[in-house]
Amino acid sequence: MGAMATCTTQLSPSSSSLFRSQITKRPFLFPPAKIDRHGFSPRRLKSLSLSHRSSVSASVASSAEPEKSTRTLPFRVGHGFDLHRLEPGYPLIIGGIDIPHDRGCEAHSDGDVLLHCVVDAILGALGLPDIGQIFPDSDPKWKGAASSVFIKEAVRLMDEAGYEIGNLDATLILQRPKISPHKETIRSNLSKLLGADPSVVNLKAKTHEKVDSLGENRSIAAHTVILLMKK
Ligand SMILES: [Zn+2]
Q: Which reaction does it catalyse (predicted)?
């Protein structure tokens, strides 16, 4: 998420109350089936109503024509991508771990590129809007937020939809610093935040061959693919 900030300040309210504060009475316009193609019941859809910009609601409405299928998918796959600019004077937080470096992410929350893209992968698998729409960077509430808050909310939504993590594969892309000494700590913390067995959480890291902003230590990016399974 491009505008999430660098700060490790923890937010005290629970993730669900934070999310509920984003709620309005306008529901998503998903098919009026008992259980829709996303695996959500109408009761659940009410709790997922969002107050994000009208353009978002309009695009959801126009793209969500009623469909005949009422089956609940046994598996759902999701992909997440995130990139942040690196600037001197900020901490580098990856997967909730403070990594020693000469620069970090300038963003609205703590700028945790890995957690942001994992959240987007979960939301994508559930067929929900992206992290920027659910936690808008225009909202001062998220300034300096620890990204673990976003993970907890995504896990709550996954659980509510009746899914659990099958497995997750993430790739960090950065030129410096070397991630190998921190990889297991990051992976272990990510597993903990997700409430998942470490054996289903995989983390890879690679450089960008000194090419472009990623390769010039001016940015950091991450990709995540996740498989959710119906509980
Ligand atoms: Zn981000």
A: 4-CDP-2-C-methyl-D-erythritol 2-phosphate = 2-C-methyl-D-erythritol 2,4-cyclic diphosphate + CMP
Strand 201-206 to strand 163-173: parallel, antiparallel, or no bridges (unpaired)?
parallel
The closest alpha carbon to 123, from 221, 54, 191, 40, belongs to 40
Which strands make up the sheet holding 75-88, listed edge to edge?
103-105, 75-88, 219-230, 163-173, 201-206
Residues contacting residue 11 through CB under 8 Å, at least 6 positions apart = 18, 141, 145, 146, 149
Does 23 fall in a domain? no
Q: How far is the CA of 107 from the centre of ligand 1 (A)?
A: 8
Number of independent structural domains in the chain: 1
**CATH number, domain with residue 212:** 3.30.1330.50
Q: What's the 5 CA to ligand 1 centre distance in angstroms? A: 8
Query: Ligand 1 centre and the CA of 120: distance in Å?
Result: 10
6 domain residue, yes or no? no
pTM: 0.73
Crossing angle for the helix pair 113-126 and 183-194, to the nearest 10 degrees: 40
Residue type, 84: H
- Coil, strand, or helix at residue 194? helix
What's residue 140's pLDDT?
A: 84
